[in-house]
Amino acid sequence: MIRVALAQINTTVGNISGNCGKILDALSRAKAQAADIVVFPELAVTGYPPEDLLHKDRFVRDQIRALRSLAGKVRGISAVIGFVDTGKDKRLYNAAAVISGGRIAGVVHKKELPNYGVFDEKRYFSEGVVSPLFLLNGSLIGINICEDIWVKNSVSRDQARAGARLIINISSSPFDWEKLELRKKILVERARSTGGYLCYANLVGGQDELVFDGGSMVLDPRGRIMAAGRQFEEDLVVADLDVPRAARPGKKAVVLSADPGVKKAPLSPRKAPGPLSRVERIHKALVLGTRDYVLKNGFQKVVIGLSGGVDSSLVAAIARQALGAENVIGVSMPSRFSSEGTRSDARQTAENLGIRFLEIPIEDILKSFLKTLEGEFSGLPFGLAEENLQARIRGTILMTFSNKFGWLVLTTGNKSEIGVGYCTLYGDMSGGFAVIKDVPKTTVYELARFVNDRSGAWIPESVIDRAPTAELRENQKDQDSLPPYDVLDEILKGYVEDHQSVERLSRGRAGRDLVSRVIRLIDRSEYKRRQAPPGVKITPRAFGKDWRLPITNGYDGAK
What we know:
By secondary structure, the chain is an alpha/beta fold. The chain has helices at residues 16-32, 57-71, 147-150, 155-161, 179-194, 278-296, 310-323, 340-353, 363-377, 384-405, 415-420, 441-455, 461-465, 485-497, 502-505, 512-524, 526-529, and strands at 2-8, 37-39, 78-85, 93-100, 103-109, 133-136, 139-145, 166-171, 197-202, 204-207, 210-213, 217-219, 225-228, 235-241, 254-255, 302-305, 328-332, 356-359, 408-411, 433-434. Strands 13-12-9-8-7-6-15 form a 7-stranded mixed beta sheet. Helix 1 (16-32) runs parallel beside helix 2 (57-71). The protein is elongated.
């Protein structure tokens, strides 16, 4: 019998000492539960993904030095810890150190390097070749890293063929709203195909636009989940596995020491975490991603332009849940076009959330700008320039608060608006973090209702029921310029996430002319998106790491 502990920790990229502190804490807790081996996520020492920090020789040396120091403290238990190995050939490898008896007993190099979506590992790492097996309590163990388990008939199959009946996979697998089901399917298939136990240890926490959702799990040889970690929280998952002893362990297997004197008390029953709905997973990802971005970057308080609309109300609610009401400031900045309804809703939302509320009218500032420009604008109608000027005044006020008090500005634009450029550079796009940047407008409404169901109506119903409007001119509605959001979001998903053609998209509810118009808006708005702050990724393809459309682009994908 092998008692395995999966340490699902929240690391910070580059904080080597802090990450090692978390590793030591989890190692101590695993040892207290008499675990034989404790498993940490991919690149746990450096945090994931370290990106171009890996071009800094000192950074690579520092994390290796920290790992060696850690190894000396691993006694009476074995550990699998993700780090960056330089290898004998001085190349960099995404690696797992297998530590036992106070020393690094062996190192495993990642073989399958993902180079799609948000992943860019071939930029930094070389592919591993040999995957050694390890012998613990008489049983053979195979260890691999993240993508190694996703590729069919690859590392895990070879390890099983060599006799391993326990496969350990260390991962840093980012969240998106379709990932959980796919991940479970892959892990079940691998457990069944290898005929052994499968332990999957995943990272948790926010890193720039990525969120890692944890959900570590242990599966038996039939693919049944024996134990699972909570999603979006740090956790320690401990399970007893009846792994068959190896008949012929082979001379090449690395023997890991065990502490035969430790008596293993039966594990306390652990309630399995209940399944989370799609909207609940999205909500938790947004809260975690916001909290970690703010706190890991040294901020404490955030400020939000609170317009009385559904987007800013949702962002304020998420910020309140992430940081506490005392750390959120809402600022209403009404103009001549702001209705009494939106002004009162902004105030009511702040009261419901218990956050500080400021109202700063911008009418006098707008008049001053227009007076200054009246000579050049003489005889020209009020138009887009004057509309965007209001947004830029508001952005300037928020950024001035940020400079004066150290508050981080959270922007409030959603994926539908950002996708088609229905946003103002240096206006509503001004800020440090874009909480709902990857949330389509239709999902914004789902989340608003979810928040109200859970919180007791933080967001006034009038906010949710009101037709969306930027209120930058008289009687303005979003659908004056855009198709209905359910139609727009369908096109956006098909084009951005599913790479569908105009012909394929035109078979849906939208005709070819509308599809072509939306695609041109998406393509021509890339220059804006490049200047937008990062935001939480929740869809399979977000505007950011996933999306690399040229700004200068002569191809018309809308034909």
